[in-house]
Amino acid sequence: MSDVLPRGRGVRKLRSAVGYTLLVLVALLFMSPLIFMVGTSLKAPSEIFSTPPSLFGSTLEWGNYSEVFSYAPFTRYLVNGVVVATSGTLVTLAVSALSGYAFSRLRWRGRTATFTVFLATMMLPQEVIIVPAFVLMRELGWVNTYQALIVPWAFTALGAFLLRQFFLTVPQELEDAARIDGLGRLGTFFRIMLPLARPTLAVLAVFTFITYWNSFLWPLVIVNDVSTLGTIPLGLQQFFGQQGTQWHLIMAASVISMLPSTVLLIALQRYLVRGIVTSGLGGR
């Protein structure tokens, strides 16, 4: 019996070692494009397409990152991206929380049918509604404005669905107790329901911020002056010019553009797993 136990422990340790090794290999496989991008951003232009290919050049050209800001108004692109993504995320969170609460807790005629139609809009690709959206923005006089970049995509069914799924998991007795203590409908929402929904709001915030941050087609349509209202995806296009493609600057700019989303993920990571489970995305 004493020989069986150490042998069993050895087998478990071997399996764990093999499992972790496979995970590391898979992680390196998925990270290889990112590693290649960082390496290319630190190369001299003459070494990017060298033969045989190398991960890094003969010297690390850290000056490529400062050159990004002198080659194009990249600071402006970053500021515009942060303003649009942050504002759009805040508006989406507010609208989604209110609509999710209304669809889950308030009793009104046609609630189920309205929610079904609202949810069906998720099946419409952006390309289908981009022309009507542009016509509406033009009639409102919002072409080439911040509000045109933010407002049309802030009222999404995904956010309402996520918050509705969470609010349905909150016991009704908790809300009844708040009402007995004298809280009204809005007081219950802001003081009881909304603090409980922080993990789900964190998940929605990450999804929404990344969507706004990486959006290319809509800014390309609605923005006339890229130098003043261009966001990061539009700004990256400025490195493709008549003088050739500045690959080292494109890679450096891409690395810089990843930083805000990365910081947001790190800041909200402790809420993400809980939020995915409670919002109905965990496969329940």
Automatic annotation (TrEMBL):
Keyword vocabulary terms for this entry: Cell membrane, Membrane, Transmembrane, Transmembrane helix, Transport
Transmembrane segments: 20-42, 77-103, 115-137, 149-167, 248-268
Xref: SUPFAM superfamilies: MetI-like
CDD domains associated with the record: TM_PBP2
Domain of life where this protein originates: Bacteria
Membrane topology value: Multi-pass membrane protein
InterPro entries: MetI-like, MetI-like_sf
Residue ranges of every copy of the ABC transmembrane type-1 domain listed in the record: 78-268
Subcellular location: Cell membrane
Family indicated by similarity: Belongs to the binding-protein-dependent transport system permease family.
Protein name from the UniProt record: Carbohydrate ABC transporter permease
Natural source organism: Streptomyces hintoniae
Lineage of producing organism: Bacteria, Bacillati, Actinomycetota, Actinomycetes, Kitasatosporales
